[in-house]
Write a structure and sequence with these properties.
CATH class of the largest domain: Mainly Alpha
Number of strands: 4
Largest sheet: 2 strands, antiparallel
Order of helices and strands: HEHHEHHEHHEH
Number of domains: 2
Shape: elongated
Helix content: 40-55%
Structural class: mainly alpha
Radius of gyration: 18 Å
CATH topology of the largest domain: Recoverin, domain 1
Strand order of the largest sheet: 1-2
Length: 152
């Protein structure tokens, strides 16, 4: 790939190989988002689907030479958001400017903005990533975001 450095190709090949369960240089398209996220990209579910990802296992396979152009395209996509972008968004809910926000506002945000989560997905994210609320219902949002970004 002309757009990818040899280091990028090497990283992509390694990440791809992790999801190549039988060593045939093929992954299930349901894992496309996981491979891209393993490469520190943050594509939306809509982008993954547009690039050939599927929602169900066994619907489609992707070869490494099909994956590399997808990786290259996603790498160029500036509309993914990064930790700093998401942190700035959550600061809008930090009324006391002390690094905390209401846990209920975080839940509402996950359920209503951007690529909305389902109630079940929201509960799972909160259980896995959110620190306990203090007595007033506030949580520190930076640690939540760091945990969330690791899961992505």
């Amino acid at each position: 790939m002309a757009d990818l450095s040899s280091k990028d190709v090497e990283r992509a090949e390694f990440a791809f190989s992790i999801y190549d369960s039988d060593g045939t240089n093929v992954i299930d398209a349901v894992d496309l988002g996981n491979v891209l996220r393993a490469l520190n990209l943050n594509p939306t579910n809509a982008t993954i689907e547009k690039m050939g990802g599927t929602k169900k296992k066994g619907e489609k396979k992707l070869k490494l030479d099909e994956f590399l152009p997808i990786f290259s395209q996603c790498k160029k996509d500036k509309d993914q958001g990064c930790y700093e972008d998401f942190l700035e968004c959550l600061k809008l809910y930090d009324k006391q400017e002390n690094g905390t926000m209401l846990g209920a506002e975080l839940s509402h945000t996950l359920l209503s903005l951007g690529e909305r989560l389902t109630d079940v997905e929201c509960d799972e994210v909160i259980k896995d990533c959110m620190d306990p609320e203090d007595d007033d219902g506030f949580i520190p949002y930076a640690p939540f975001l760091k945990k969330m970004m690791v899961l992505l």
